[in-house]
Amino acid sequence: MDALTRIEQALTAAVTAAAAGCPPGLAAAVRHAVFPGGARIRPRLCLSVALACGDDRPSLTDAAAAAIELLHCASLVHDDLPCFDDAAFRRGKPSVHRAFGERLAVLGGDALIVLAFETLTHGAAVAPDRLPTLLLTVARSVGMPSGIVAGQAWECESSVELTEYHRAKTGALFAAATAAGAAAAGADPALWGELGARLGEAYQVADDIRDAAADPAELGKPVGRDFALDRRSAAREFGIAGAVQRLERLLAEAVDSIPPCPGGAALRASIMAESQRFLPKGLVRAAA
Amino acid sequence: MDALTRIEQALTAAVTAAAAGCPPGLAAAVRHAVFPGGARIRPRLCLSVALACGDDRPSLTDAAAAAIELLHCASLVHDDLPCFDDAAFRRGKPSVHRAFGERLAVLGGDALIVLAFETLTHGAAVAPDRLPTLLLTVARSVGMPSGIVAGQAWECESSVELTEYHRAKTGALFAAATAAGAAAAGADPALWGELGARLGEAYQVADDIRDAAADPAELGKPVGRDFALDRRSAAREFGIAGAVQRLERLLAEAVDSIPPCPGGAALRASIMAESQRFLPKGLVRAAA
Fold it and tell me: Looking at residue A222, what is its pLDDT?
């Protein structure tokens, strides 16, 4: 079974079980938040690492990947709320609060956070000794002091260091994706966090670049929400060319950090292939 | 050490550890949400049940009690948001969104949910075999399909059965408090959920009665938010006297449900004493 099929099946099983007997509006809001998905980049990364480490408990791997994605979806639902980005659309359809109202968006995000931990616990029935490490790995990436919730909260502070902000806002869940993939397969998660953290930072820098120059033809004439909302951004800080250089350095560091493992070569190749999707090719060439 | 001291120490340890290195605003919002507390009725119930069951892993009991209270605090912060109750005050001081803004109220609630599961996992280091049951017990009481988040979501539906609504909105976390107290002490949580569920329903009925007749002298002339917001309420459904009868029946059922255990008699006595605080005595006498 390919990675995406495993992920979609695990997500469908988790959401379907949770929705039975649930208030219909809440169930619909949660389904809307999770399906259809985006690129599922974090859970695919989780699966890739687990496979590189032997993937000896596939159902636990699937649960870990699903938990990571559920938490990502929760963060999108809450970040889209009127008090944050007030985003009208997400993944090509109305955001959850536009489709279901603000109350079900708040509750839907809360329910998704809880569902993530529940999914992980159910999945660990096949290897209960791996549960504590997995849970702490995932919880740290979401909560205080340096998970994605903290990353979002840095936006409420008057001063923040860019690397710390990116590390928490995006890097944390990426780091959890790789560490949880390793932990699900019985490997040491501490050796695998850096890979995810670097990829997460790279992803965020790519996002900043896209925000500043959505159309490569507009290079050097940055427009976008980071500027409009006066948000910290690698593109604002270093310029487009500097940001692209930073991105390439982060990707190289990511690949270099992969510890020895049975499937290391395949993982390296898949990450390099995947990372080509971070940026429009035109942009990379133009900046080179 | 008395119960309240154990609870406050466990909460302080959890919040202090999480706040180190956290964005200052988020740390302050979370502290504001947790300290000073209300009656801490749920974690005290959790401790009472653990003690009745032998309390052989006190640090795990403390973690379970703290997790229950952190989740309760999270639900208060999110329920107070402008899109729900828009409450200006909570526990005698400004609500979190009034004091710190809506963004930190959303994020603070999210962080508290995560911290609850993290606290539970740390606490279970002394008895890892009890972690899966504890986690599922607690998660079910908060999430879909019938935890407090679902209870709140029933308010967004056009039709809802009162018992189901109360069971999810308040009963769920009370049921988790007793079940988690048992599970923390190595007892069977399935035998202990009913006690908490009945007490939670009783507590909610008492709350409905207080809302409808805050001053006993006004009995029979109900005023309050449930009426103003057209919310389901036992006082609206059955009248004040009927609601008081229902409350007394629920308390009797609660005490009757206590399974055989080393400290059963003491637990029974403490619950009867505690439940006297549910209602102003004048009201009970007037309705009798």
Answer: 43
What are residue B90's DSSP bridge partners? B93
- In which element (H, E) is residue B90 found? strand B89-90
B144 and A18: CB-CB below 8 Å?
Answer: yes
Alpha carbon distance B37, B73 (integer Å)? 9
Report all structural domains of chain B as residue ranges with CATH numbers, in order of start.
3-287 (1.10.600.10)
Instruction: Give the helix ranges, DSSP H, for A1-159.
Output: 3-19, 24-34, 41-52, 58-79, 96-100, 102-123, 131-142, 148-154
Alpha-carbon distance of A13 to A5, in angstroms, equals 12
Contact list, A83 vs chain B (CB under 8 Å)? 101-103, 106
Output the pTM of the full model: 0.92
C-beta of residue B45 within 8 angstroms of C-beta of residue B115: no
Looking at per-residue pLDDT, the higher value among B62 and A266 belongs to: B62
Strand-strand pairing, B93-94 and B89-90? antiparallel
User: Can you tell me whether residue A99 is helix, strand or coil?
Assistant: helix
- CA distances B108 to A206, B70, B71, B119, B183, Å, are 28, 11, 11, 16, 28
Whole-angstrom Cα Rg for chain A: 18
Provide the ipTM.
Answer: 0.92
Query: Sorting pLDDT into bands at 50, 70 and 90, what band is B159?
Result: confident
pLDDT, mean of residues A149-153: 94
Query: For residues A149 and B254, what is the distance between their CA atoms, to the nearest angstrom?
Result: 39
| Contact residues, chain A, for B113 at CB < 8 Å | 110, 113-114
Report the mean per-residue pLDDT for chain A: 89
Q: What is the DSSP letter of A169?
A: I
> Averaged over B184-190, what is the pLDDT?
97
Q: Is A238 on the interface with B (CB under 8 A)?
A: no
The answer to whether residue B288 scores a pLDDT higher than 60 is: no
- Which residue would you say has higher pLDDT here, B139 or A166? B139
